[in-house]
Known about the structure:
- The protein is mainly alpha-helical.
- The protein is built from six helices and three strands.
- The chain has helices at 44-73, 78-87, 94-100, 105-117, 139-159, 166-186, and strands at residues 92-93, 121-125, 133-137.
- A hairpin with a 7-residue loop joins strand 2 (121-125) and strand 3.
- 17% of the residues are buried.
- Mean pLDDT is 83; it is low at 1-16 and 18-26.
Amino acid sequence: MREAAVNTDTAGTESGYDLNGGSAGRSGDDPMTGCPGLGPQVGPDEQLIRDYGLMLSASTRLERIVGKEFERHVGITHAMYEVLRRLEGGCTSMSHLAGETILTSGGMTRLIDRMEKAGLVSRYASDTDRRVQKASLTDKGRATLDHANRVHTQTLRRVFAGALDEDQRESLKHILVRLERVGRAELPSLG
């Protein structure tokens, strides 16, 4: 796979932000869209909304890049990869998997159905409660996860680590941990 260099001097201008703190485009353009309009001076509420939108945009783009790499090189979706990682330590219930991902319990069941048909997981009833369905990795699932981890690491080195130096990644990690704590306090389960 060809490594793509990330130009950190211009990478943020596509979304309307100059990574050095200014706004991209002509003076008077909307910093997020580049469209004529609001101009560089906005109030704090608008800036808060734009900052949040920038965070979501960056996250969504990176997730889509990662997802495309999984599909292209491993033949699985990003959601399948997340399930494989969670099953790596042993079996777990469908409800637990759904609570740790963005899928509903019904969505998780459909995903596990596809993964079971692909031979990545096996599903069975709990020994203690037959109503509870559990899943575990198959040998093929473990091999797929190993391959997916290598692809994921290469992708993250290119589009995530390559765009930030070590100090920036450490700062980002502290910020994300703080935001994750706030989010978990408000919404303990994603399901």
